[in-house]
């Protein structure tokens, strides 16, 4: 993904923070994958114990998906790679909260 109005290629990484239930959907397919052409975007799920911690490696992905909890906990760490990337766009997906009034998600850590 690059800005064609500029002579230099500018990466446009997007960070999407979602409730954990939306990250771990059936058959490993996310909403992003369902609505984009197969192979058109590099997607990475930043979640679990074996996350990529190298900033340069994470920059290779067009979209990085994470959870509110993961981002909240790691944002307090000085070495958190998510805080070292200049994201083109950050999306906070609250669809689960909107659909489920009984959701117990806490937003204080954001």
TrEMBL record:
InterPro entries referenced in this protein's UniProt entry, alphabetically: P-loop_NTPase (IPR027417), SNF2-like_sf (IPR038718), SNF2_N (IPR000330), SNF2_RAD54_helicase_TF (IPR050628)
Entry annotated with the keyword ATP-binding: yes
PANTHER family: HELICASE-LIKE TRANSCRIPTION FACTOR (PTHR45626:SF17), TRANSCRIPTION TERMINATION FACTOR 2-RELATED (PTHR45626)
Superkingdom of this protein's organism: Eukaryota
Organism in which the protein naturally occurs: Salix suchowensis
Protein name, per record: SNF2 N-terminal domain-containing protein
A Pfam family of this chain: SNF2-rel_dom
Record keywords, A-Z: ATP-binding, Helicase, Hydrolase, Nucleotide-binding
Domain named SNF2 N-terminal: residues: 10-105
């Amino acid at each position: 993904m690059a800005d064609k109005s500029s002579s230099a290629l500018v990466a446009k990484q997007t960070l999407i923070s979602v409730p954990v239930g939306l990250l771990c959907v059936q058959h490993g397919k996310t909403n992003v994958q369902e609505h984009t052409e197969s192979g058109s975007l590099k997607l990475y799920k930043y979640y679990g114990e074996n996350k990529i911690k190298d900033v340069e490696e994470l920059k290779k992905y067009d979209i990085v998906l994470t959870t509110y909890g993961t981002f909240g906990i790691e944002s307090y760490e000085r070495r958190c790679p998510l805080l070292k990337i200049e994201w083109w766009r950050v999306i906070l997906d609250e669809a689960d909260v909107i659909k489920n009034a009984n959701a117990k998600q806490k937003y204080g850590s954001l």
